[in-house]
Amino acid sequence: SQKIEQNSEALNIQEGKTATLTCNYTNYSPAYLQWYRQDPGRGPVFLLLIRENEKEKRKERLKVTFDTTLKQSLFHITASQPADSATYLCALASYNTDKLIFGTGTRLQVFP
Amino acid sequence: GAGVSQSPSNKVTEKGKDVELRCDPISGHTALYWYRQSLGQGLEFLIYFQGNSAPDKSGLPSDRFSAERTGGSVSTLTIQRTQQEDSAVYLCASSPQTGERAQHFGDGTRLSIL
């Protein structure tokens, strides 16, 4: 069956360091992958989209990579700040549908 | 303009009752999605509306769940004969048109079944 895995354990890093979050998937051929940020009690907020034929995408301090051979996406936050503390969700969509399948998310805690 | 609006923000009801959850999407967005998020879990897809096309209902967990979208705008998710396992946050999202579009989420309705 299709499966999307994100590290369920929280990631704790020091301010200024680079945070790297992982999204792995199996039995899936996504057309594109998205990353969202979710704060407690709020809905997810879109961050980045990367297509299956793209290797890397950047936006300000954010970088996403997509390796369809490894079936993995990495999400990087450089020069992390306490305000980056949140849960980060990856989501995949197949061709011919905009229905997103979400991972369970990884909670990031950036401490001063 | 305003974002996606959901109401009520919280709903507590007794097992066996019916509930209706409302979603007002961003004006002009043709696609509308419903998800469910249980405590500490990721989002579970429920149903997807796109324009005048038949909705994708493949995520609805049982026939107690239904949704409609009137006039291509407001959507209502109805859960009949609620069960305790229906307790979760129900999230609605909308997006403009189709194809690799970011989904814009509301803050959800927290449903608690006693």
Give the SSE layout:
The complex is a heterodimer of chains A (112) and B (114).
Chain A: E1 3-6, E2 11-14, E3 19-26, E4 32-38, E5 45-51, E6 56-59, E7 62-67, E8 72-77, E9 86-93, E10 101-102, E11 106-111
Parallel strand pairs in A: 2-11
Antiparallel strand pairs in A: 1-3, 3-8, 4-5, 4-9, 6-7, 7-8, 9-10, 9-11
Chain B: E1 5-7, E2 10-13, E3 19-24, E4 31-37, E5 43-50, E6 65-69, E7 75-79, E8 88-95, E9 104-105, E10 109-113
Parallel strand pairs in B: 2-10
Antiparallel strand pairs in B: 1-3, 3-7, 4-5, 4-8, 6-7, 8-9, 8-10
Summary?
The complex is a heterodimer of chains A (112) and B (114). With 112 residues, chain A is mainly beta. Chain A is 0% helix and 55% strand.
Descriptive overview:
- The complex is a heterodimer of chains A (112) and B (114).
- Chain A is an all-beta fold and 112 residues long.
- Chain A has one domain (3-111): Immunoglobulins (Immunoglobulin-like, Sandwich), CATH 2.60.40.10.
- Chain A contains no helices and eleven strands.
- In chain A, the strands form two sheets. In chain A, strands 2, 4, 5, 9, 10 and 11 form a six-stranded mixed beta sheet that branches.
- In chain A, a hairpin with a 2-residue loop joins strand 6 and strand 7.
- The radius of gyration of chain A is 13 Å and the shape is globular.
- Chain A starts with a strand and ends with a strand.
- By secondary structure, chain B is mainly beta.
- Chain B has a single domain (5-96), classed as Immunoglobulins (Immunoglobulin-like, Sandwich), CATH 2.60.40.10.
- In chain B, strands 2, 4, 5, 8, 9 and 10 form a six-stranded mixed beta sheet that branches. In chain B, strands 1-3-7-6 form a four-stranded antiparallel beta sheet, with no helix packed on it.
